[in-house]
Amino acid sequence: MTDTDQQLANADKKNFETSASAITVKLVYFAWVRERVGKGEETLSPPSEVRTIADLMVWLGARGPEYADVFEAKKDVVRAAINQNHVPPQTSLEGAREIAFFPPVTGG
After folding, report:
1. Per CATH, the architecture of 3-102 is what?
2. pLDDT per residue over 45-96, tens digit each?
């Protein structure tokens, strides 16, 4: 196999891996999470290896510096909700139609 053939095979494999997805989900960002990511919502299809909120946060953190600022640097303070129910990071994405990310909420 030539170097060019190998590069094409690797590119095909990478495209397949990044396109293979278990779900398509609407992500909604609130407060400073929205400000740092630069958008209020988006619809994404994470790879099939992304099975939990924690996995999703790691995957999002690798999407670029605006995501890393939230999902890597501040991962311990960002909260999540699936289908409008607060959930811990180890929660499965199964059945998720909408996932929201937001800072901690204080009452008063």
Report:
1. Roll (3.10)
2. 999 999 999 999 999 999 999 999 999 989 899 999 999 999 999 999 999 9
Q: Each residue of 22-32: pLDDT tens digit?
A: 789 999 999 99
List, in order, residues 6 or more apart from 71 with CB less than 8 Å away. 57, 58, 60, 61, 78
CA 40 to the chain's CA centroid: 14
43 Cβ contact list (under 8 Å, min separation 6): 24, 25, 26, 27
- CA-wise closest residue to 62 among 54, 53, 72, 52: 72
For 11-49, letters b (16+ CB in 10 Å) and e give eeeeeeeeeeeebebebbbbeebbebbeeeeeebebeee
- Phi, psi values for residue 87, rounded to 5°: -140, 150
